[in-house]
């Protein structure tokens, strides 16, 4: 038998022994001291943990509880245990919405290797004796992974944590810890990763890292550290990633590259480092990612930067660097460079036209807000791998080169706020990545930001959040002329199309309705004429739209997303019909796609006259039917009116309009809904929205509805009602509540919603705990949608995709 085969046998036997130990531990009762510690831990929480037993000894099988991993006493070598029981080695309850306090009983789990309570809502300070280590015992002495990040913990960090000699991972990120960072960090001799980012630590960073010979990752960004980088940290041979961004560090950056042989990612952005850009950095042979943005550097890029062997990402935004021509000449020799961000430098310089410049592997080029002069140089056309180009907020002139349309991977082009003239290149309508491909920027590292936006990211935002760059064509605020090409409708992957503040003329092509992924369309402040194409109503994802200040006329399209756009989206035209515009003449009452007037066509007049006659007749028939139905249902309504005299004159017995559904509600009327909600009694309120409350309704046959009551008589509320009716009536997504019908109640609008399971209509936090994981995922998605930073918000397509991935059948 060969050596390799022998090793394979050993591996298989080891795996089988491991599985046997796990199975054995699952059949063992939980150790009584561990059970007691877990019960105390549960008492510190404000709500029980799903899948855990009660708080007494009648449920001793804690090894089968959610988030608990046990090993048998014998497998752990605990020969002193009188009974071979299951010992808790892992307590993992990340992202479980835990609220309350962390009690010190957890420290009694003396065989615990992993404690992960991150991404919860734990508050207050860490108990002083949580990890206390009395000489007579070995509480938590085996702990290797301690993850308490993303909670609401406050105060200082207990010195007892630094006595955990086997600790490999310490994650305290995104809490409210404060005070100076203890020198006790230097006692964690086994530490491999330290994350104290997004807290309120202050003072200098202690110079105690010489003893941490295994430390690979140090994340301390978004605190209030001052002073210089400690010498022991600047000489760490094991460090792979150093992220001290967004602090108040200063002085000269002095790293010993001959010692830091493993350093691959360096992020010192948003500090107060000064002097010249360090010329010795290429001596760090494995350095791939460098972010030195928003510091106080001056001068030119060092000539030595041409010697970088592995450099892939470089950001020097907002550093007062000069001489763009020299910078590009030097950096083109970095053959691995894929991302180059130089925003807010080189003020007033010319964009070099040197034909010898060439960036073979460049994917991201950002030189924005530099007031650069000149035109877009021909050498840029040779960078065939470009995915994202941002040259916005400069003083560039000339025409936009047509060769942009030949970039196979380009999905983000921002040339806004310049002085470009001429027509929009027709070639841009054929960008492959905006027609048939889905391309996104790859992060250089899970803990490294792609590049800075014009606004700094605030404290508390984590670097492991993916920055979203939606497919974009931004050509706003230039002097572009000519038409909007109909072929732009082929760009089905485009999300943002921004052409405002140019001199574009002609009509708005109806073909733009083919841009199925479009979320933003801004055509304002141009010389466009004709009508707004009614086909644009089909852009289901459109959330921002403006045609303000053009020469448009005719009726504003209605329905779908158009009902949600503000009046300011249409001002400065000759439009009519809605959004604060005058009523349309009768001849403009139909959605025409051309400028010809129907009054000139005698056949159209005849058809209109016939339509009016038949319409009037149909209306009379409908009114008679409503009166007959009202009479047949008058008794129930009369009884209700007798107890509500003040409302009797205003209420009419309207029927509820039912949409197509598999359910058969037959003659469901308004009074049926009033009775099912006990006349909208407060006891039936189950939620609230921006324009009203949501009530529980129980129909006589036992089926349940949620009735959203939109109150008020404002135009905004009317638009909200119509938009929601149209959107929800078409929605077929399994994670969206389906609209069953709608009706009117005085000045209120009613929306009927129903699902097959009660937990999909009413809040499972109130009624049960069967959908915790799904609900938590939805809440996380909602929080991303509400982010104050636009680039962090998901696109509508991403949103639908994420909702599709949620298991509604659990």
What is the β-strand count? 41
What's the alpha carbon Rg, rounded to whole Å?
33 Å
What does the oligomeric state look like here? single chain
Distance between the termini: 49 Å
According to CATH, the fold-level topology of the domain at 419-599 is Leucine-rich repeat, LRR (right-handed beta-alpha superhelix)
Q: Which regions are unreliable across 5 or more consecutive residues at pLDDT < 50?
A: 18-26, 133-138, 452-467, 588-606, 626-654, 660-664, 755-769
Helix % is 10-25%
The main pleated sheet reads as: 19 strands, mixed
Per the principal axes of the C-alpha atoms, what is the gross shape?
flat
Number of helices, counting only DSSP H or I runs of 4 residues or more? 11
User: Could you give me the name of the CATH homologous superfamily of the domain at 419-599?
Assistant: Ribonuclease Inhibitor
Strand content: 15-25%
Structural class: alpha/beta
Q: Please identify the top-level CATH class of the domain at 419-599.
A: Alpha Beta
Mean pLDDT rating: 78
CATH architecture type of the domain at 419-599: Alpha-Beta Horseshoe
Keywords: ATP-binding, Leucine-rich repeat, Membrane, Nucleotide-binding, Receptor, Repeat, Signal, Transmembrane, Transmembrane helix
Membrane topology: Single-pass type I membrane protein
Subcellular location: Cell membrane; Membrane
Signal peptide: 1-25
């Amino acid at each position: 038998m060969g050596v390799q085969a022998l090793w394979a046998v050993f591996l298989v036997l080891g795996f089988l022994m491991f599985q046997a130990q796990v199975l054995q531990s699952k059949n063992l009762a939980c150790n009584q001291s561990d059970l007691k510690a877990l019960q105390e831990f549960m008492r510190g929480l404000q709500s029980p943990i799903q899948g855990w037993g009660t708080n007494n000894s009648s449920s001793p099988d804690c090894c089968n509880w959610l988030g608990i991993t046990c090993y048998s006493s014998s497998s752990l070598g605990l020969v002193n245990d009188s009974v071979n029981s299951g010992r808790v080695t892992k307590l993992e309850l990340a992202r479980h919405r835990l609220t309350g306090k962390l009690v010190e009983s957890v420290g009694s789990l003396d065989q615990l290797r992993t404690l992960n309570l991150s991404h919860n809502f734990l508050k207050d300070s860490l108990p002083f004796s949580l990890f206390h280590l009395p000489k007579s015992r070995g509480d938590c002495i085996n702990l290797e992974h301690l993850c308490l990040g993303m909670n609401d913990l406050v105060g200082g960090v207990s010195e007892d944590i630094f006595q955990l000699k086997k600790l490999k991972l310490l994650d305290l990120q995104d809490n409210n810890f404060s005070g100076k960072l203890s020198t006790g960090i230097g006692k964690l001799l086994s530490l491999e990763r330290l994350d104290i980012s997004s807290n309120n630590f202050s003072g200098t960073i202690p110079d105690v890292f010489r003893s941490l010979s295994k430390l690979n990752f140090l994340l301390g960004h978004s605190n209030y550290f001052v002073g210089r980088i400690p010498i022991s940290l600047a000489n760490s041979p094991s460090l792979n990633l150093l992220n001290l961004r967004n602090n108040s560090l200063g002085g000269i950056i002095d790293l010993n590259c001959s010692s830091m042989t493993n350093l691959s990612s360096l992020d010192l952005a948003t500090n107060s480092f000064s002097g010249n850009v360090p010329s010795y950095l290429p001596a760090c042979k494995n350095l791939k990612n460098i972010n030195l943005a928003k510091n106080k550097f001056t001068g030119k890029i060092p000539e030595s930067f041409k010697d970088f062997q592995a450099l892939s990402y470089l950001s020097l935004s907002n550093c007062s660097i000069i001489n763009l021509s020299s910078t590009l000449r030097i950096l083109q020799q970095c053959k691995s460079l894929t991302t180059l961000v130089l925003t807010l430098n080189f003020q007033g310089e010319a964009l070099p036209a040197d034909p010898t410049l060439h960036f073979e592997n460049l994917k991201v080029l950002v030189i924005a807000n530099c007031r650069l002069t000149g035109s877009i140089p021909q050498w840029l056309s040779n960078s065939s791998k470009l995915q994202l180009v941002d040259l916005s907020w400069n003083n560039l002139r000339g025409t936009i080169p047509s060769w942009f349309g030949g970039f196979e991977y380009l999905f983000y082009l921002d040339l806004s706020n310049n002085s470009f003239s001429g027509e929009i290149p027709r070639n841009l309508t054929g960008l492959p990545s905006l027609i048939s491909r889905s391309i996104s920027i790859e992060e250089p590292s899970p803990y490294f930001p792609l590049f800075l936006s014009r606004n700094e990211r605030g404290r508390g935002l984590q670097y492991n959040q993916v920055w979203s760059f939606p497919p974009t064509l931004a050509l706003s605020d230039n002097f572009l002329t000519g038409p909007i090409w109909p072929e732009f409708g082929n760009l089905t992957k485009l999300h943002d199309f921004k052409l405002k503040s140019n001199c574009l003329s002609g009509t708005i092509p109806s073909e733009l309705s083919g841009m199925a992924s479009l979320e933003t369309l801004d055509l304002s402040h141009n010389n466009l004429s004709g009508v707004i194409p009614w086909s644009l109503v089909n852009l289901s994802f459109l959330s921002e739209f403006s045609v303000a200040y053009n020469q448009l006329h005719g009726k504003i399209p209605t329905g779908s997303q158009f009902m949600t756009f503000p009046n300011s989206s249409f001002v400065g035209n000759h439009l009519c019909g809605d959004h604060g515009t005058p009523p349309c003449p009768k001849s403009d009452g139909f959605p025409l796609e051309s400028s010809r007037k129907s009054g000139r066509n005698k056949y159209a007049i005849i058809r209109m006259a016939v339509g009016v006659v038949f319409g009037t007749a149909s209306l009379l028939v409908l009114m008679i039917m409503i009166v007959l139905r009202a009479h047949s249902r008058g008794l129930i309504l009369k009884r209700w009116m007798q107890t509500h005299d003040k409302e009797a004159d205003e209420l009419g017995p309207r029927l509820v309009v039912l949409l197509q559904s598999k359910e058969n509600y037959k003659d469901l009327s308004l009074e049926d809904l009033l009775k099912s909600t006990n006349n909208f009694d407060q006891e039936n309120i189950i939620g609230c929205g921006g324009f009203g409350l949501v009530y529980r309704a129980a129909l006589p046959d036992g089926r349940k509805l949620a009735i959203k009551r939109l109150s008020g008589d404002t135009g905004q509320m009317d638009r909200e009602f119509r938009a929601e009716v149209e959107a929800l009536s078409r929605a077929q997504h399994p994670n969206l509540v389906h609209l069953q019908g709608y009706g009117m109640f005085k000045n209120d609008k009613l929306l009927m919603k129903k699902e097959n399971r009660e937990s999909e209509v009413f809040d499972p936090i109130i009624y049960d705990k069967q959908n915790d994981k799904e609900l938590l995922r939805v809440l996380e998605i909602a929080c991303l949608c509400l982010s104050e930073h636009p680039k962090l918000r998901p696109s509508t397509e991403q949103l639908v995709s994420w909702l599709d991935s949620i298991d509604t059948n659990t």
